[in-house]
Structure to design on (270 residues):
């Protein structure tokens, strides 16, 4: 009976932690995309992210601060053609969806929108109207608001915001939206580590270092930009439409680029 009670208490504690994590997400400042879903919530977290890749690695010669790398990502994205920016946004948003530890209903409801952005990035001009309609529906919904913490925070979930920004990137051909997606991916890497460390119920001492996860995410973004560079000319043309055969080949190539960093913490069970 005692063992059973202890197990139940541990399970209840884990559930409480998850509820607190979800509640904390909802208490973060909520901003609509129209008023500007926050491009990055790095200073809105419960703590400000450290500026180096872990205490030990910061002192090593040659280690580059992830913030410096993220600035490189931003500069390269802003300098890219609109087609490359859309492809980068789709790649990054897809990675966030695949690594999403929570699967909030509103975020999951945006999967069809991301599925529209993919062919749009590959040159399917028929995706423009459906994407505009979905974004229009979002703007008219309760999730697009300027009510701060009194309004629903669902659209400020990192994967959700990334998808919305990716769609806006295609719709307006503005690379700055892709830069916002990159910022949200950094936030998401930090938050995944936070959730994993809170949900861990084992006895072993396990280190959950957000700086390592963030460093790997930023380096993956740079690798994605390198991979997209060889398709820059075709992606630039894709903005104005490609043949069906070209669309298929390009779409396959883009989807094959989706890679998750190796440091992808998830809730561990003791």
């Amino acid at each position: 009976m005692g063992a059973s009670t202890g197990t139940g208490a541990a399970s209840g504690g884990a559930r409480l932690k998850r509820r607190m994590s979800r509640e904390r997400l909802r208490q973060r400042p909520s901003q609509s995309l129209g008023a500007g879903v926050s491009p990055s919530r790095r200073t809105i977290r419960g703590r400000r992210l450290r500026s180096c890749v872990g205490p030990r690695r910061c002192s090593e010669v040659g280690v580059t601060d992830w913030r410096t790398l993220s600035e490189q990502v931003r500069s390269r994205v802003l300098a890219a053609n609109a087609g490359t920016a859309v492809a980068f946004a789709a790649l990054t948003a897809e990675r966030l969806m695949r690594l999403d530890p929570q699967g909030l209903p509103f975020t999951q409801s945006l999967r069809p929108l991301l599925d529209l952005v993919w062919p749009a990035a590959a040159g399917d001009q028929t995706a423009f109207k459906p994407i505009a309609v979905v974004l229009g529906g979002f703007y008219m919904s309760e999730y697009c608001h300027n009510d701060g913490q009194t309004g629903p925070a669902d659209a400020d979930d990192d994967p959700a915001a990334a998808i919305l920004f990716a769609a806006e990137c295609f719709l307006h051909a503005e690379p700055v939206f892709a830069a916002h997606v990159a910022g949200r991916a950094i936030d998401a890497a930090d938050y995944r580590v936070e959730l994993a460390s809170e949900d861990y119920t084992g006895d072993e001492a396990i280190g959950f270092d957000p700086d390592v996860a963030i460093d790997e995410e930023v380096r993956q973004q740079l690798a994605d930009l390198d991979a997209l560079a060889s398709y820059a000319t075709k992606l630039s043309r894709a903005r104005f439409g490609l043949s069906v055969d070209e669309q298929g080949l390009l779409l396959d190539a883009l989807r094959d680029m989706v890679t998750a960093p190796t440091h992808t913490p998830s809730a561990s069970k003791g």
Summary: The radius of gyration is 20 Å. Residues 2-27 form the longest helix (26 residues). Residues 74 and 179 are 6 Å apart (CA to CA).
